[in-house]
Amino acid sequence: MSGPRVNSFFLGNSSGVNFSIIVSPIDEETGKLQVANCSGSKRAADWNLNVTPGMNTAKVTISLTRNLQLCLPNATDCCTTPLCVVETLQVLACRNSVMLAHLLVQAEIYANSSFTGNVSENATIIPNQVFQPLGSCPCDLTAGACDVRCCCDPECTPDLKQLFNESCFTGVFGGDVNPPFDQLCSSQSMEYTPDWFPFLCVQSSLNNTPFLGYFYHGSTSTPKVPSFKIPLQTSPGKLFTGYRQGDPIMTEENEYFTVPQRSVAGQCVGNAPVAYLQNFDVKCLTNLASYKEGLPHDVRINSGTGDFIQQSVMYRTITDTGKFITESESLHTAEVQCRNVTFAEHYTFILKDKDIEDINVTVFLGSLCDGEILTQRFTVRFLSLKSTNAAELLGNPGYQVGKPVRAANMNASDTFGSLNIWQPAGRGLCTSATYTPVIFGLDSLSGCILEVGINEDCSLLRENVTEKLNSLIQATHIGKRDNSSYSDLNDWVEIIRLDPFNSDTNVSTGSLKGICPDIPANLNIRIIFADVGAVQGIPQQEILAVQISYSTVIWQFQCGLICENSISFLPITTSVQFIKVPAQPPISMTRFQINYTEFDCNRNDVCWPQLFYPFTRFYTGEPYSQCLAKGLSLAFLVLLAAIMSNPWFSKLWNSSLV
What we know:
Number of strands: 27
Subunit structure: Part of the tectonic-like complex (also named B9 complex).
Protein name: TECT2 protein
Organism: Chunga burmeisteri (Black-legged seriema)
Family: Belongs to the tectonic family.
Keywords: Cilium biogenesis/degradation, Glycoprotein, Signal
Low-confidence stretches: 231-239, 387-393, 506-510
């Protein structure tokens, strides 16, 4: 052991066991330890033994009681050498004078060298650091001891200073708390002083030094848990002029309105802010031990214009918890603790223009017990106040990458439609596969496997495959934009369908079983889109046309030696391709770009043709008026620097001072 305390454990039943400690000197001639017996006690010399019994185990603690400080002059209870303790200990566990176990401990403990004196309990009076330095020796951090490399420390003797005399701390930390700063006019004699230095130098005494700011106030504050807050508005009135897409929704307390969401890593974050016009539907796993309540439903929300609205909450009770309880662990206890928790929360934001008009919240409650794993569901969607259909979302004036493509069925009374692709599950069979919507801008390929018998009728197989592929497209039109209105047919484009080739051939020539030609096994969805502008700097894209076609294959039954009463598989796939128009061909290089490559911005780090790009109309990072004002200010400073760098200006300035 190298410290004043060490722990060990005695494994087994410690009832009736007597623990003792002895200091065992080593025989210098034989090098053997003293023979131990069970007549010892729990204290030996400067050592104490403490035993904490437990379940089939006991914690044994050995502690040193002596002082480990280095000796000062005329001191007694201290360490005379840096290696303060070198002893060999034996810990014995006996029952009825029979030794059950023993532990050998070699102790080599060094003295504490960081502190060699007593600290006064009186509070230190700290002067006002605004007008004078905190101390003449800031590197003196240890009271009553010499700090290494701190040459201004009064506790450092000349002998100790010789050890680090050439490595002392410099600057303010090393004790030079009042150095002449570079801005003083008296520092003009310094090397490389610019010509404009007399014009901008400071005439001040050393008592008024900027280094006092290093120790300004020195007050401490208690740490606070960071929260999702924005700076408070100092001016009265409305906070906002309306929300924009992606803006966090704020509460009355000027905090973010949060709902549990899934992070990039796939984990659920309980205090994730809700972004304006961004719908989501997430599921989070939890149990009774880790369950936490979310944001209270009595929190009022900022409507976007400074007004605050109250949430309309409706509570419902779930009796069938089978859809939410995904796993149940077997419990051995007779009594199981249960608690009424939130199973699901559905938020619906009713919008009018850029403002939030109302918030409807539906909370589903149920009982969760120990050992059960709950799948919580949280949904947020934004609806337009002008919409009479709950399915009509208030979206963007154009599509953005990552958003679902909107579809409509204009031939049905309920115009809501869907455009989906396969999402296989389990073995990948079509009978267990689910649907997932087509995402704008994401080319995808998915499929499933259809079980087919050897005696399958080819006509029925074609109809079955076509029916399954058509089930993915429950729509006649696709929305041009994300905010297409179901009541305006001009906001939609009709889906162009190229029906599969209808073959009347039932089997191949020779009436062979297990071969079917012209099976429409591939569904091809091509979506043509283009850029139509930008809103608040965000590019907006619009769908121009949608085409659906089929690719046929020849299906042949695959089997081994025996094909009777066996099943083969037919993979059917769906592909989605987004095509942007018009096509952007590469810009041909001019003869100047070919011959003078040093002026090519794509090949060089320095781009001279774009030197004044921030001052042109093509730069949209900030308003043109601000760019122009900053450009004129920069030009004035450059002109002023050029004038002041001339020798005649220095001569004129020196003559004016005389």
